[in-house]
Design brief:
Number of domains: 2
Number of helices: 5
Shape: globular
CATH class of the largest domain: Mainly Beta
Structural class: alpha+beta
CATH topology of the largest domain: Umud Fragment, subunit A
CATH architecture of the largest domain: Ribbon
Strand content: 25-35%
Order of helices and strands: HHHHHEEEEEEEEEE
Number of strands: 10
Helix content: 10-25%
Distance between the termini: 40 Å
Radius of gyration: 18 Å
Oligomer: single chain
Length: about 200
Protein backbone atom coordinates (compact mmCIF):
# COMPACT_ATOMS: atom_id res chain seq x y z
CA UNK A 1 0.00 0.00 0.00
CA UNK A 2 2.94 2.27 -0.79
CA UNK A 3 0.86 4.66 -2.90
CA UNK A 4 -2.28 4.70 -0.76
CA UNK A 5 -1.43 7.67 1.54
CA UNK A 6 -0.77 10.12 -1.32
CA UNK A 7 -3.60 8.76 -3.47
CA UNK A 8 -6.08 9.16 -0.62
CA UNK A 9 -4.94 12.70 0.11
CA UNK A 10 -5.07 13.70 -3.59
CA UNK A 11 -8.49 12.14 -4.15
CA UNK A 12 -9.88 13.68 -0.95
CA UNK A 13 -8.63 17.13 -1.93
CA UNK A 14 -9.97 16.76 -5.48
CA UNK A 15 -13.40 16.30 -3.88
CA UNK A 16 -12.91 19.48 -1.78
CA UNK A 17 -13.26 17.37 1.36
CA UNK A 18 -11.45 17.92 4.67
CA UNK A 19 -10.02 15.11 6.79
CA UNK A 20 -12.84 15.77 9.28
CA UNK A 21 -15.47 15.47 6.52
CA UNK A 22 -14.05 12.14 5.42
CA UNK A 23 -13.74 10.87 8.99
CA UNK A 24 -17.46 11.55 9.56
CA UNK A 25 -18.38 9.61 6.42
CA UNK A 26 -16.24 6.71 7.58
CA UNK A 27 -17.52 6.85 11.15
CA UNK A 28 -13.98 7.38 12.42
CA UNK A 29 -11.88 10.05 14.12
CA UNK A 30 -10.05 12.73 12.11
CA UNK A 31 -6.76 11.30 13.45
CA UNK A 32 -7.53 8.00 11.69
CA UNK A 33 -7.73 9.74 8.30
CA UNK A 34 -4.60 11.74 9.13
CA UNK A 35 -2.76 8.50 9.99
CA UNK A 36 -3.84 6.98 6.66
CA UNK A 37 -2.54 9.99 4.75
CA UNK A 38 0.87 10.05 6.44
CA UNK A 39 1.25 6.29 6.11
CA UNK A 40 1.23 5.63 9.85
CA UNK A 41 -1.59 3.11 9.55
CA UNK A 42 -3.42 1.28 6.78
CA UNK A 43 -7.16 0.71 6.40
CA UNK A 44 -8.91 -2.62 6.43
CA UNK A 45 -10.34 -4.01 3.20
CA UNK A 46 -13.83 -3.00 4.39
CA UNK A 47 -12.60 0.59 4.85
CA UNK A 48 -11.03 0.53 1.37
CA UNK A 49 -14.40 -0.56 -0.01
CA UNK A 50 -16.12 2.29 1.83
CA UNK A 51 -13.54 4.80 0.49
CA UNK A 52 -14.04 3.53 -3.05
CA UNK A 53 -17.80 4.08 -2.66
CA UNK A 54 -17.39 7.56 -1.15
CA UNK A 55 -15.12 8.76 -3.96
CA UNK A 56 -16.59 6.60 -6.72
CA UNK A 57 -13.17 5.13 -7.58
CA UNK A 58 -11.85 1.58 -7.69
CA UNK A 59 -9.74 0.11 -4.88
CA UNK A 60 -6.93 -0.13 -7.47
CA UNK A 61 -7.08 3.65 -7.94
CA UNK A 62 -6.69 4.06 -4.19
CA UNK A 63 -3.77 1.65 -3.78
CA UNK A 64 -1.82 1.53 -7.07
CA UNK A 65 0.52 4.08 -8.68
CA UNK A 66 -1.44 6.89 -10.34
CA UNK A 67 -1.93 6.41 -14.08
CA UNK A 68 -0.53 9.37 -16.01
CA UNK A 69 -3.25 11.31 -17.78
CA UNK A 70 -0.98 12.23 -20.67
CA UNK A 71 -0.32 10.04 -23.69
CA UNK A 72 3.30 9.74 -24.84
CA UNK A 73 4.99 7.91 -27.68
CA UNK A 74 1.92 7.76 -29.89
CA UNK A 75 2.23 5.93 -33.23
CA UNK A 76 1.61 8.53 -35.95
CA UNK A 77 -0.12 6.11 -38.41
CA UNK A 78 -3.87 5.96 -39.05
CA UNK A 79 -4.89 9.44 -37.90
CA UNK A 80 -8.43 10.81 -37.59
CA UNK A 81 -9.68 14.39 -37.98
CA UNK A 82 -11.88 15.94 -35.30
CA UNK A 83 -13.07 19.46 -34.39
CA UNK A 84 -10.61 21.78 -32.64
CA UNK A 85 -12.64 24.03 -30.33
CA UNK A 86 -11.16 27.26 -28.99
CA UNK A 87 -11.32 28.08 -25.30
CA UNK A 88 -11.08 31.78 -26.13
CA UNK A 89 -14.18 33.89 -25.58
CA UNK A 90 -16.13 34.52 -28.77
CA UNK A 91 -14.16 32.06 -30.92
CA UNK A 92 -16.26 29.08 -31.94
CA UNK A 93 -13.91 26.69 -33.73
CA UNK A 94 -10.38 26.71 -35.11
CA UNK A 95 -10.79 23.99 -37.73
CA UNK A 96 -9.76 20.40 -37.13
CA UNK A 97 -7.13 18.39 -35.29
CA UNK A 98 -5.54 15.16 -36.45
CA UNK A 99 -4.74 12.41 -33.94
CA UNK A 100 -3.84 8.71 -34.19
CA UNK A 101 -6.96 6.57 -34.34
CA UNK A 102 -5.55 3.94 -31.94
CA UNK A 103 -5.97 6.26 -28.93
CA UNK A 104 -9.66 6.78 -29.64
CA UNK A 105 -12.42 4.97 -27.80
CA UNK A 106 -16.14 5.06 -28.36
CA UNK A 107 -17.77 8.45 -28.40
CA UNK A 108 -18.12 11.79 -30.11
CA UNK A 109 -14.91 13.76 -29.57
CA UNK A 110 -13.41 17.21 -29.92
CA UNK A 111 -10.04 18.72 -28.99
CA UNK A 112 -9.23 21.93 -27.13
CA UNK A 113 -5.90 23.68 -26.55
CA UNK A 114 -5.41 24.90 -22.97
CA UNK A 115 -4.77 28.63 -22.70
CA UNK A 116 -3.46 28.79 -19.12
CA UNK A 117 -1.69 26.80 -16.38
CA UNK A 118 -4.61 26.66 -13.93
CA UNK A 119 -4.60 22.83 -14.10
CA UNK A 120 -0.84 22.35 -13.79
CA UNK A 121 -1.38 20.42 -10.53
CA UNK A 122 -3.13 17.80 -12.72
CA UNK A 123 -0.17 17.80 -15.17
CA UNK A 124 -2.17 19.82 -17.70
CA UNK A 125 -0.34 22.93 -18.88
CA UNK A 126 -0.78 25.86 -21.22
CA UNK A 127 -0.45 24.69 -24.82
CA UNK A 128 -1.50 21.09 -24.11
CA UNK A 129 -4.23 19.64 -26.32
CA UNK A 130 -7.01 17.84 -24.46
CA UNK A 131 -9.42 15.29 -25.94
CA UNK A 132 -13.04 15.62 -24.78
CA UNK A 133 -16.03 13.33 -25.23
CA UNK A 134 -19.30 15.15 -26.05
CA UNK A 135 -21.66 12.32 -25.17
CA UNK A 136 -20.84 11.03 -21.71
CA UNK A 137 -22.27 10.81 -18.22
CA UNK A 138 -20.88 13.51 -15.95
CA UNK A 139 -20.50 12.98 -12.20
CA UNK A 140 -19.10 15.15 -9.42
CA UNK A 141 -15.31 15.32 -9.54
CA UNK A 142 -15.06 14.80 -13.32
CA UNK A 143 -12.76 17.03 -15.34
CA UNK A 144 -14.94 18.74 -17.94
CA UNK A 145 -15.08 21.68 -20.31
CA UNK A 146 -17.95 24.05 -19.66
CA UNK A 147 -19.26 27.09 -21.48
CA UNK A 148 -20.34 29.96 -19.24
CA UNK A 149 -23.07 32.55 -19.84
CA UNK A 150 -20.52 34.93 -21.48
CA UNK A 151 -19.55 32.12 -23.97
CA UNK A 152 -16.12 31.67 -22.38
CA UNK A 153 -14.96 28.08 -21.91
CA UNK A 154 -13.18 26.60 -18.90
CA UNK A 155 -11.63 23.20 -18.20
CA UNK A 156 -12.35 22.44 -14.55
CA UNK A 157 -13.35 19.75 -12.06
CA UNK A 158 -17.11 20.02 -11.66
CA UNK A 159 -19.32 19.62 -8.59
CA UNK A 160 -23.09 20.05 -8.89
CA UNK A 161 -25.34 20.45 -5.87
CA UNK A 162 -28.99 21.36 -6.30
CA UNK A 163 -29.01 24.33 -8.73
CA UNK A 164 -25.40 25.39 -8.10
CA UNK A 165 -22.20 24.46 -9.94
CA UNK A 166 -18.73 24.71 -8.39
CA UNK A 167 -15.82 24.67 -10.85
CA UNK A 168 -12.43 23.85 -9.33
CA UNK A 169 -8.98 24.13 -10.95
CA UNK A 170 -6.51 23.78 -8.09
CA UNK A 171 -5.94 24.84 -4.51
CA UNK A 172 -4.13 27.96 -5.79
CA UNK A 173 -7.13 29.14 -7.83
CA UNK A 174 -10.37 30.14 -6.14
CA UNK A 175 -13.30 27.95 -7.21
CA UNK A 176 -15.95 29.50 -9.41
CA UNK A 177 -19.49 29.07 -8.06
CA UNK A 178 -22.41 29.88 -10.34
CA UNK A 179 -26.02 28.91 -11.03
CA UNK A 180 -26.47 25.68 -12.97
CA UNK A 181 -28.52 27.62 -15.53
CA UNK A 182 -25.40 29.68 -16.44
CA UNK A 183 -23.29 26.61 -17.27
CA UNK A 184 -23.36 24.35 -20.33
CA UNK A 185 -21.31 21.17 -19.97
CA UNK A 186 -19.66 20.54 -23.33
CA UNK A 187 -17.75 17.35 -22.62
CA UNK A 188 -15.61 15.26 -20.32
CA UNK A 189 -11.82 14.92 -20.51
CA UNK A 190 -10.73 11.63 -22.05
CA UNK A 191 -6.99 12.22 -22.57
CA UNK A 192 -4.34 14.91 -22.73
CA UNK A 193 -2.44 14.71 -26.01
CA UNK A 194 1.33 15.20 -25.77
CA UNK A 195 3.90 14.89 -28.53
CA UNK A 196 1.27 14.94 -31.26
CA UNK A 197 1.83 17.20 -34.24
CA UNK A 198 -1.39 18.53 -35.65
Amino acid sequence: MEYFPKNLKDIRKSHSMTQSDLAKLLGRQKSTVSNYEIGYSTPSYETLQKLSEIFNVSIDELTNPPVPLKENGIDENNRIEMPLVSSKNGVKEDGSFSIPIEIMGDGNFFVMKLEDNSLSASNLNKGDFVLFNYACNIKNGDLVVVMLADNSKLVRYIYIQDDTVTLVASEKTAPLVCPLSDVTIMGKVEKALVGIDN
